[in-house]
Amino acid sequence: MGAFAVGMAVASTRLIKQVDEYAEKLLIIFGPLFFAIIGAQVDLRGVNLEVLYLSGIVIVIAIVTKIFGCGLPSIIFLKDKTKALRVRIGMVSRGEVGLIVAGVGVSAGVLTSDIYTTVIIMVALTTNITPIWLKKSFKNELASQQ
């Protein structure tokens, strides 16, 4: 909360441009490092039928909850089922936040390596399937326009 408050305070000053440039330079270093550390914590040797079964269940739950959780608000506010579907598809991806929470959980010993691997598989799959699914939803519209 303190970092958030400082960010809000700096955002309303003339220093924001300098802070933003500095943060971009740090991102070049720490962004790839973050993903390398997360990847190093995944033990693919531990992938077995149980992990794959659990991953399948978690992936289905992750997709369904995003589709339904974003469904009603997107339909109400957009008043267009096609656009609302695209919003719901776009929300399916679970990225950095899932990785951060899983990384903290495994580091603290709260998550087992099987659960951690399951979360990583779910994040990877939903992150990769979302742009493909979105492209397909737009391709259908382009085909109907021609």
Quick description:
This protein has 146 residues and is mainly α. The chain has 6 helices and no strands.
Question: How are the elements arranged and paired?
Answer:
Elements: H1 2-11, H2 16-40, H3 49-78, H4 81-90, H5 96-107, H6 113-145
The span between the termini is 51 Å
Beta-strand share of residues: under 5%
Structural class: mainly alpha
What is the radius of gyration computed over CA atoms, rounded to a whole number of angstroms?
19 Å
The number of distinct β-strands equals 0
Q: What is the quaternary state of this protein?
A: single chain
**Biggest β-sheet description:** none
Count helical runs. Answer: 6
Give the SSE string: HHHHHH
Helix content: over 70%
Shape descriptor reads: globular
